[in-house]
Amino acid sequence: MVHSRPLEQNWRGFLSNSALLDWISEIAGKKPKDENLYIRAVTHGSFGPEDFQRLEFLGDRVLGLTIASFLYENFQDEPEGMLSQRLNGLVSGKVCGEIADALGASNHLLLGKQARDDGARQSAKVLGDVMEALIGAVYLDHGMEAAQKFVLRHWESKISGMARDVRHPKSALQEWAAAKNRKMPVYELVEKSGPHHDLRFTVKASVPNVGEVEATASSIQTAETAAAQLFLEKYT
């Protein structure tokens, strides 16, 4: 049995938040047994000490195992490298944020004033973290099987939309440059901006004597990947 620490007194009003609990029942397909878990899953650190970070940590592992198991069973002819590329794409913060946004998670976030003013409600990173925290909450509340069903149901469109060519954009760009006898792509951090909870990184990707593009994302690695994809779309 999972024992949750008592919530702070100023949280108690949210225990009767029927809109939140109805939403959880809808997206989880089950009525919450431990309401505190889900309140914590949508609580940002700016709102109170019992925030979503520990649940996010747990949910991230449940998500990774669930998607990895699904790929292992359903792409039996693919080597480890290709499976890893698919996995990395499906469990990225960007995808988690997109799914949380589609589910309407932003309507239920508990945020402090500064975070609200900083736009945390629309932050892809915050939404991605909350999505992982919700997975962790379902796991603790209903067990692994329910958590796996929760993930696969909400990741279904992302999985079915995967391209058969799963080459990473940076690898594809490098292969293109080599095939065209061009110099290798260069990635340069141009700008780092935004509040601490929602940092944005702008990266420039260039191939000498061909061109350059810029892309912005919540991590340098994601920005580099996006820039490589933009370069491929623009110049190849």
Automatic annotation (TrEMBL):
Matches recorded under InterPro entries: dsRBD_dom, RNase_III, RNase_III_dom, RNase_III_sf
Top-level enzyme category: hydrolase
Domain RNase III: 21-143
Pfam families found in the cross-reference section: dsrm, Ribonucleas_3_3
Domain DRBM: 168-236
Residues of the signal peptide: none
Superkingdom: Bacteria
Keyword rRNA-binding attached: yes
Keywords, alphabetical: Cytoplasm, Endonuclease, Hydrolase, Magnesium, Metal-binding, mRNA processing, Nuclease, RNA-binding, rRNA processing, rRNA-binding, tRNA processing
E.C. numbers: 3.1.26.3
MF term (GO), any: ribonuclease III activity
Cofactor: Mg(2+)
Annotated positions binding Mg(2+): 56, 129, 132
A single GO cellular-component term on record: cytoplasm
SMART domains per the UniProt record, alphabetical: DSRM (SM00358), RIBOc (SM00535)
BP term (GO), one: rRNA processing
CDD domains named in the record: DSRM_RNAse_III_family, RIBOc
Stored Gene3D superfamilies: 3.30.160.20, Ribonuclease III domain
Subcellular location: Cytoplasm
Active site (catalytic residues): 60, 132
Reactions accelerated catalytically: Endonucleolytic cleavage to 5'-phosphomonoester
Subunit and interaction comment: Homodimer.
Stated role: Digests double-stranded RNA. Involved in the processing of primary rRNA transcript to yield the immediate precursors to the large and small rRNAs (23S and 16S). Processes some mRNAs, and tRNAs when they are encoded in the rRNA operon. Processes pre-crRNA and tracrRNA of type II CRISPR loci if present in the organism.
Family the UniProt entry places it in: Belongs to the ribonuclease III family.
Listed name of the protein: Ribonuclease 3
Taxonomy of the source species: Bacteria, Pseudomonadati, Pseudomonadota, Alphaproteobacteria, Sphingomonadales
